[in-house]
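Researcher: I'm comparing several assemblies side by side, and this is the next one on my list. It has 352 residues spread over two chains. Same procedure as the others: predict the full complex and return the structure.
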Amino acid sequence: MQTVYLVSGPAGVGKSTTSQALAKALPNSAYISGDAVSHMHVNGREKPWESRSELLLIWQNIWRLTSNFITHGVDVVVDYVTFPEEAKWLQKQLIALNTNVVYVVLWTDKSTLLQRDQTRLPQHQMGERCLILIDEFENSGLEPRHVKDTSSHRVENLNEIVDDIRSNDRYRLKSE
Amino acid sequence: MQTVYLVSGPAGVGKSTTSQALAKALPNSAYISGDAVSHMHVNGREKPWESRSELLLIWQNIWRLTSNFITHGVDVVVDYVTFPEEAKWLQKQLIALNTNVVYVVLWTDKSTLLQRDQTRLPQHQMGERCLILIDEFENSGLEPRHVKDTSSHRVENLNEIVDDIRSNDRYRLKSE
């Protein structure tokens, strides 16, 4: 039985670092960056948070890639801002493949997120959007058991976080 | 009617530069790097030129992404070492979407390819594999009308190459 790991959370929380470490810890794994998938659309692209059809295109692409990997016996790590509704949608698309879906939302305090945002290159800074994302997660009906608070963690603890995501049952998305 | 552009050719011939310029010239476009899709598979990945199942996984991923983009009205540029059989296979998968498939194999002389290979970072140099690829194309049943010789072209001619790929009917893959 293959597993899809949805590593989510607001910008600056460490999704990419954590997802890549997770993919490297699994014996047969794929790493899908939602941002990379999103930017495959070159001209005509709309901002996914302003356009439902752009967001749908991205999720359909993530779904199809995930589905192919699972079919080939490969576990998948998806690194993207994923809300509970999207996690459930993906789980539903994959139902025939009998797949585990692990949904973890990395979290830390607002001031840390804003600090990290400012250390990025200007063109990658999210500014306001950063705070809006936090609010969106807080109003998304997210169940606390999917949240992993990393406030007290340092880079040295990356392995611990990865192990926790792999082994802790509380992140598993229940079938509806 | 949407178009899929398969920009192929041996390593070092300018696939990426040409594909990206092509994607930027189209009003609504996606750019799919076959290498990027291939490297989504992190652990357990085999070399696609040594493993048929790895190559199949890559092409299935390219197909599903392409199919989604086409369905959303987006033209697609695929930047990958694509042989005639693979181009025909993709065309067949897309048949229900009534899609144009443009297949162009960029070409130049061996010495230029080997020179360019040596200007790459050591970890990206292909060495022998470079020459093997040239032989593989020469024995692939490739029709001359799909070949675009870029030997006499310089960077300044990139727009000309892009215009040629967009407008020259000879690169269009015929339906079988």
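Model: For your comparison table: The mean pLDDT of chain B is 93.
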